[in-house]
From TrEMBL:
It comes from Urochloa decumbens. Residues 193-220 are annotated as: Disordered. Residues 1-22 form the signal peptide. Keywords: Signal. It comes from the Eukaryota. This is Uncharacterized protein.
Amino acid sequence: MAPTRWPLPLLLFFLLSGAATATEDASPSNPPPSPTPWPERFHAVLFTNLTNYSSASTGPPLRITDLYYDWPRRRNLNLVRHQLSADPLYDVEWDNGTSFYFDSSTCRVQRFPVGVLPPWWLSGGGAEYVGREVTGGIECHVWGKAGFIVYYEEAATGRPVRWNFIDVTGIQQFVMSFEPGVALEDAQWQAPAHCFPDDGSEEDGNDQGKSNDDVASSSKEEVGVVMLEAASRVLRKLAGAAAAS
Ligand SMILES: *[C@@H]1O[C@H](CO)[C@@H](O)[C@H](O)[C@H]1NC(C)=O
Ligand SMILES: *[C@@H]1O[C@H](CO)[C@@H](O)[C@H](O)[C@H]1NC(C)=O
Ligand SMILES: *[C@@H]1O[C@H](CO)[C@@H](O)[C@H](O)[C@H]1NC(C)=O
């Protein structure tokens, strides 16, 4: 078999473009891009899909979440609306590790050993560059961190686009809007009276009758709260990883 004869200009083109690619990949003057730190305050609307829904839980897998991140005040709020549910769930997280999960009638208080994620939780170290990928039609840089998360950032602007938690629930969140600098007024962060029972007993309240890690509860409210906790638990884990890195 005669070897294929490449026209010289085409062969040169291949050699040159191959060389150019190699240079781009290997040159120390082209290190992988770094993630953009989060702004100190922002409001984001997230579309959430618990993609491992069928095996991981019994609640509704699709949600719209308003996320208010407020680093100067060291607090984080998720306002979660499950599909076709009238009663939104709130998750107010404080830097002292206390989280309040409540809707119009139920409340649960949970303690975590870590506080709110700092703006540099990803940019400050430990992120592994995965490469470029188009998601939702948006050209992104992608990083992974600590086996917890895969994070997509718009290549052109540095805005967050999407993150997938590496978790049995398979939580994926898609950033539908992102408004740096937008803050929620103080009154909106206050947990309601039914989070503070009159009897002054400890916060895990016996009347709810559930221990912190009991996922085997069956009432609708409990299921909703458990589902809400899934995302916030991984975020808290991430906060721990960020603090340790
Ligand atoms: C949610 O994730 C599941 C599992 O990957 C997928 O089949 C489904 O289409 C997704 N739903 C939406 C609305 O994106
Ligand atoms: C943490 O801070 C919040 C908001 O100020 C407060 O309601 C909660 O009681 C605090 N938790 C602890 C354990 O101090
Ligand atoms: C989905 O959930 C099941 C049950 O919790 C778990 O065994 C499985 O590993 C999960 N799948 C993924 C991809 O995490």
